[in-house]
Each structure stands twice: as C-alpha cells, then as structure tokens.
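Good morning C.,

I know you're traveling, so I'll keep this short. The sequence:
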Amino acid sequence: MSTAGVANGQTQVQPETALRMLNAQQQQFEKGVVQVADNVYTAVGFHGANTSMIVGTDGVIIVDTLFGPSSASKAAEAFRRYSDKPVKAIIYTHSHGDHTGGASAFVGDEKPDVFATETFGSAEGVNKAVEPVKAKRNIRQFGRNLSPSESTNRGVAPANTEDGDRGKGFLPPTVTVPSDGLKTTIAGVEIEFHNGPGETGDAMFIWLPKEKVLLAGDNFYSSFPNLYAIRGTAYRDVLSWSESVAKMATFKPDVLIPGHTMPIQGQDAATTALNDYSEAIRSVYDQTVRGINAGKGPDQLAHEVKLPEHLKDKPYLIQFYGSVPHAVRAIYAGLLGWYDGNPTTLNPLQPKLKAKKMAELAGGTQELTEQMESALAKEEFQWALELSDHVKWLDDADVKLARKVKIAALRALAAREYNAPNRNYYLSCANELESGQLSEVWF
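The tokens, ready to paste straight into the viewer:
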C-alpha cells in the first residue's frame, strides 16, 4: 500500500489505528462524578465540558455550568448525592457557551453571586459579522450532523450532547474579578481567582490553597490545545496561553481539573502536565517565529514544525483536538496577516484560470481528470482532493466525477484522522457534497 495518503498530516495514521486511538480517548470523558478532594467534585461527560462543585460550610460553589439547563440539571442532580447545600456562588472560567449556558439549573431560591473577569464575553471577539458561516463550520468541526456509524467523538468531548437548550440557563455575572485577580472566602472556602488569558482573552483559573486544587478552565485539557479552531476564530494569543499555563504550574497543585477531560491527580503528575503543556505551546510558537524570520511561508512551516520529541507522546499532548499544523498557520496569520511575503502570492491567478492552466499542463481536461482518478487509486488522497478542485472549474469537465472523487478522498482522509475536528470536518463535507447541500463553489 502507498504511504502517500497518510503522510500529508501529522494526525493521519492507518484507519484501524485512528479509530483505536479515538476510542481510547473516550475514557477521558466517561460520564460520572470524580471526587478530587474531601470537598471538591467534578462532573465529567454530562456535556462536552466539565462542571465542578466545591462544598463549603453553609453552601457550595459551582465552577462552570455546561451548555444548557438540561445537561446541567443532570450534573446538579449527581452533585446532590454529595451535598444538598445551597449554591452560594457560580464561577465562569471564561465565556464559551459550553461553560456558561446551564447556570440556572444549579440555582434554587437563593440568588448566588456570579463571578467572571472584567473582559468576560470577549471570547468570540470581533467576528460576529461572519456568524452564519461560523455556525455551519461549527456543525462540521463537532460532527453534529454525522450519523452514529460515522461519529467517534470531539477529541475532548463525547460526540452526542444535549444542545437544544443552548445558553438558556445563562446567568449574567454579578461580581467582576479585577485584572490583578481576587482572593476571598466563599461559604468558608478560601478561594483565589487568577486571570489567565489563553484559549480566550477573558479566561481565568481558580486556586483552592487549602485543598491544593487548581481549576484550569479551557487553558488545559488532555489533548494538544486548540490554538486555532477550524470552525473559525479570531487569533488566540498563543504566547499568553503558554505563559498562563506556566503560571498555573508554579502553584504545584495536588489536583488539576481541566475544562474538559478527566482531572489529573498527584502533585508530580499535575505539575509536570502543566509544565509540559506550556513548553509544547511555547515550542510551536518559537519554531514558527524562527521560521517566519527565516523567510519561510505558512505552507512550508505547517509541515516542518513538530512537537519536541520528549513531549509528542505525552497523553495530554496527543493531537486529538488541537493540531500543530493549524496552530502554525494561526500564529503566522495572527502575527503577520494573510500575506506570506512571497511576491508570487500577492495577486495569484483566479481559481478558474488556474484550473485551465493546470489542465493545459496535464495535456487537456481529460488528462487532468485521469490524473485525479489516478491519485485516488494510488491512495494519494490529498492530491486527489486538490486535483478535484481544479477539475470542477473546467467547463468541459465531468463535474459529477470530480465531486465523486472529492467525496471518496474526504472519506479516506477522515478514516485516517485521529484529530477529531479534522475527521468530523472531512466527513461532514463529504455528506454535504453527497446530498447537494454544499455549493459547488466550495468543493
């Protein structure tokens, strides 16, 4: 068998290996409540993210509240087995909807304080204008429309979640955490709020000094981090993310509670994970910047930058969710914008004209079409995909055949992906092409 089909990306392996890896990752979000300290409990797998309960003298504190009241109410019910004390405070580690949408499910007659950072709500930033296309890409990234036979998971979350009541339980913040943090006592529990921008600019982490428990929010979970989300996001400040995680490591927690996936217990394990995570992010950033300053473009760097050898096999750095190549491209665009500095790319040919030129090079439309089919037969799936995009522009081409090849190549790439967003996106686009939902302009 040709290895060309599995050599295009860092997260492509043989299909049986990809499936085995993704199935093994399922244990990271197996549904249940994990007790991590005498008075701290984390509910995993009730939705995509985690929610935690800290039990105090006359009440409890809830950190993050899942996506909507239906999922949150199930987590709240599970927590009640450990404490029926009223909720005195709710804390949002950041403003992503899967952490804020279910707050009302935890609240009784008492109205708790709701804590968030000064910049809360800035997670999705300035790109509201492109919400329509982001919504479509979100569905693809998370595989929301995939059939049960196609679904695996979302890398750091289960495939199927209750999403119909998204955000309906959101309670607006009532207490603002200042930029230099906050140390206070709630329900007899000493608690510290530390600003820590990373996945979002409005992120913070929570430290419980007596319990030595650190709640990281989405700046840490068991996967290489999603430094760029293919659903479409504004630039995530990668350097700040690395620094925030390094700051967390200085606390040397006995327990690390991520925003997604299972808690890590034991001071050595938790502290090592944080240091490794920070180093991995920083390494990708530094390698990319060195490459940029050496005059290399994003396409070349996306294939060259790798995780350091001593980190790449750490279970919390396998690229199930985030991807090093995507991170490299995001860092490039975030620091320099779209232009790679090569004068050839200042004003590239229009796609249809480029397709005609490609056909001429191949000896005509029929020859280009044969090259496309040959690439698929040789399992050069990425090349088949790229050639199908040229063929479909040609007026005298078999556009239905180009679509058929593209669908087959997408499914073949998906089968080889252990990066869940990549896998889900490939499969979702294949389905949309097959059903006619996806405009020919986009395939």
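Safe travels,
E.
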